[in-house]
Amino acid sequence: MFSRRLLQVGRLLQLPALLSLTLLLSLGCRAQDTEANATSNNDRSYQVGAPLSDSTVAAIVTSEYGVDTLTAEAFRQQLGFLLQRYPQLQMNPALLPEVHKSIIEDFIVRHVVDGEIVRQGIQADPAAVEQELEQIRSRFPSPEAFQEALAQDGLTEDSLRSMIAQMVRQRTFREQIEARATPPTDAEIEQFRQQQAEEVRVQHILFRLAPDAPEAEVAAVKARAQAVLDSIRAGADFAEMARRHSEDGSAQEGGDLGFIRRGETLEAFEQAAFALTEAGDVTPEPVRTRFGYHLIRLLERRQGTLMDVAEAREKLLQERKQEAVQNLLKELLAKATVRINPALVQAQL
């Protein structure tokens, strides 16, 4: 369960994991002006039930593991924590529905993960718990300062130890899932190195659209993007069209995003960009991402520096571990049904 204590323990632990299991998998961006470069949330397989009207409740999740409630107070506290931790979210209100969605999905993930941990009887190693606790203590100048911080957060050493134990159980559970990943072969590693070294320089034109936009708005924005695409096919200059129509920070540069590599942009954007083969090629239709519709044009393709074999092996293995985690989460989430308070939670689930 999320509560005021989790936010405060986050300050003690200083662990990004307390932000959200889901956000760790879904948030991230490349340090460029364009918002086309970000990692999107994976689709979830949970069920959505009837909306809630209780103003004190943000969400309720039910499954074979039981029932959990996310209070409105806890939801607002987590949102405030995220906005403080990631100031860029405050500068782009269009991202708020995605942040809300991530908080709710994190709540659902924790429910099923903690339920499965109990079902499997996974225990926390006492030595590991004490080691984590000692690391926290060491961050304070004195035992008195540590106790004062605990008191300010409404915690005791025992309650903090219990929370650390649950974190250790979650980590153990994840490690057990990751152990199922199949190590890559030499041939797979070499293919991965070649793919990762590929770079494409592209332009794009962004037609903004909220992820939860109504169908009528989606159709209108797509039609606008298609009209500009038709003009480009008829001979209009792509850069000039970008300056006129793009709703992205790259518009004044004719939509030029520079060189991008695999793994640096949204999956749909990446697939469309790397599918272009010849300089001057434009995507055959508008490409939808959570930011809206994109028209993408290839400027240049090149082969960058090949990744070290050991680094490629480790990166590919980590990707497979992540995939194993996602696959199991999908299975667990299929058991859950969530109900949200739409007056509080601005998310299209």
Fold and architecture overview:
This protein is α+β, with helices and mostly antiparallel strands. The protein folds into two domains: 4-182 and 323-340, no CATH class; 192-303, Chitinase A, domain 3. Helices cover 50% and strands 15% of the residues. It is built from 13 helices and eight strands. A four-stranded mixed β-sheet has the order 1-8-2-3. Strands 5-4-7-6 form a four-stranded antiparallel β-sheet, sandwiched between helices. A hairpin with a 2-residue loop joins β2 and β3. The longest helix is centred in the N-terminal third of the chain and has 25 residues, at 96-120. The protein is globular, with a radius of gyration of 23 Å. The model is unreliable at 1-42 (pLDDT under 50).
Percent strand:
5-15%
User: How many helical stretches?
Assistant: 13
Rg over alpha carbons: 23 Å
Parts with pLDDT < 50 across at least 5 consecutive residues: 1-42
In which range does the helix fraction lie?
40-55%
Q: Can you count the beta strands?
A: 8
What class would the helix/strand composition place it in?
alpha+beta
Distance between the termini: 20 Å
- Shape by Cα distribution: globular
Order of helices and strands: HHEEEHHHHHHHEHHEHEEHE
**Overall pLDDT metric:** 86
> Any idea how many domains?
2
**Biggest pleated-sheet summary:** 4 strands, mixed
Can you list the strand order of the major beta sheet? 1-8-2-3
Signal peptide: 1-31
Keywords: Isomerase, Rotamase, Signal
GO molecular function: peptidyl-prolyl cis-trans isomerase activity
Domain PpiC: 197-300
